[in-house]
Design goal:
The protein is built from five helices and twelve strands. With 249 residues, it is of the alpha+beta class. It folds into two domains: 3-119 and 241-246, 3-Layer(aba) Sandwich (Aminopeptidase), CATH 3.40.630.30; 128-233, Aminopeptidase.
Amino acid sequence: MRLEAIRSELQHIQIFRTLFLTESNTQIRYNARHERGWSDSYLLSVDGAPVGYGSVTGQELSNRDTIFEFYIIPPYRKLAQQLFRKLIAASGVKFIECQTNDFLLHSMTLEFSKSVSSSVTLFSDHTVTNLNMPELTFRRKTETDLLFEHKVEPEGSHVIAWKNEVIATGGFLLHYNVPFADLYMEVREDARGKGVGSYLIQELKKECYRAGRIPAARCNMENHASRATLLKAGMKVSGFMLMGALRVP
């Protein structure tokens, strides 16, 4: 049996990426790396027949040292370990980065890594909340709005106003796999700890659905305030980002 991992153009793996995204049915954090030219693609084959793909990126954009996607069609998954070794050999990578809700690559990460760590928590929508803050106004940002200095997130498309002052902004990013979008927000420092962020996320979720997208989010594992904000707004933990240093048995 001849197993191969051959460097290929992006269009040659797209049919398998469609299957991967459909089967995953979740937001893929690094989805845009393909279209932005930040990845290399490898077609996986058995006796000359394509059966899946692997994608590598870099911890620095100029490098290609990290496997971040790996997919094999179900009839050939019994060969996953052997095909993964072929991908490692062909690409010369040193790391694996995966989402724990990506079952196949998650299992490869645990099997082929000598150390695994995580710093990012992933969230998906879970339930409808009815947070009510009548003193606040949620609306789209206007050109006349005076915004506070943003230190972490970009200025959002929507704002929370209190007595005509903008105390929070947020929005959702659309460069993720359809139909998912990524929520983000920032609350003015003196308005934090009062439920403003959770109310903003609740309202952004509604706008996200109106735009035909399913809301998702992420935050650093050490950011306990953001985690609490997302959970209060009806999100749930759906996975973690893992990074593993490669060990080839």
